[in-house]
Design a protein that fits this description.
Number of strands: 13
Helix content: 40-55%
Shape: globular
Distance between the termini: 46 Å
CATH architecture of the largest domain: 3-Layer(aba) Sandwich
Number of helices: 13
Order of helices and strands: EEEEEHEHEEHHEHEEHHHHHHHEEH
Length: about 375
Amino acid sequence: MALNKIIRGDGTPKTVENEEVITWDEGKSYALARFAEGGQHFDLPCWEELVNGEKIREEKDILVFGERSGGGRAFLEWYRRLLGVNNNPWVLVQASDWKKENFAVSQVMDSSILDSIEAFGRVENPAEKANYLKTVAEKMSGKTIYLIIKDYMGLGRESAELGAAALRQFRDTSPYLNLHIMIMSTAEFAFLETAFRSRYNATCFRLPHLSTGEVRALAACGDASQPPLAMENKALDDLMLNTGGQPFLVRSFIDHFRETRKGDTPLKKSQVQKAWRRLVQSPPAVASIWQEDLENLLRVYPQLVPRMKIYAAVRTIGPAYFPPPSEERFLMIGGWTNLNAGGRWGITSRFHAYLARPVLDRL
């Protein structure tokens, strides 16, 4: 029986069987879309799976990609709880604010360890950065420590590339296997192989969007303050058309319906259409950040502009196999495109097309 996931507001993972009945997974696994492993960068198909917590804890290098407000917070909460089961020490760093006083830690640590992690983010030379990582591993005296880096591209492109070069150098030259590194990022290009550098040899995942069944199950979750919300099939179809299952957008719609509904009648398509008009008239603040990320990506890879124009016109390209051709994987990682049931690449949602058009007009 196929299992999918649904994430509560507090980040607790559940599984959904037959797309209707929610059962607890007891936090032992998490649904992610795996699309690359070390040494197999372009060979693996992209599939969603329930990743075993024990196995992911054993991975030394993990990259988790996804757009902002794409479910990263829930994943981080699960990952830290996972490490806490065995009392594994971890340090969480916000890349855009790389200061020791802002680090989150699981327990009291030697200040020299935190000093070395801070220095990794401060110095520019990759060899020096790699040496600071070696110092962290040495100070732990063989005990495993987890370095979690959130919002990696917040370093800025140049610093992100220097950091990735240091990570590659650390793994290539260091015998220390007790430092595990988990990075969350909105973009992949800093880690890719070029004519001047090798690829960072990590297992790569993407935070997946919600399926139709998961959205229905999420709406059906209720408590004293948020009663269950039933939806007619046409309403659910229209909701998926508008959001593509993007977690933040789905929650925004569902929260709005719960706040404005009257009685217990199932949600109708006309109510979703009304909420859609409200969304485009007053987009959430994160929408402008998504547009900025897309514009930055298209300026780095202008060859993607013609393809993105096809997607923004709500047309599809295919039949397709994973990975997508050339740098189009970046559009998938950024949440802008996905594979439809017919195996064709298309825009994630009606709202994504709405956001992409003014960006394309500026280029």
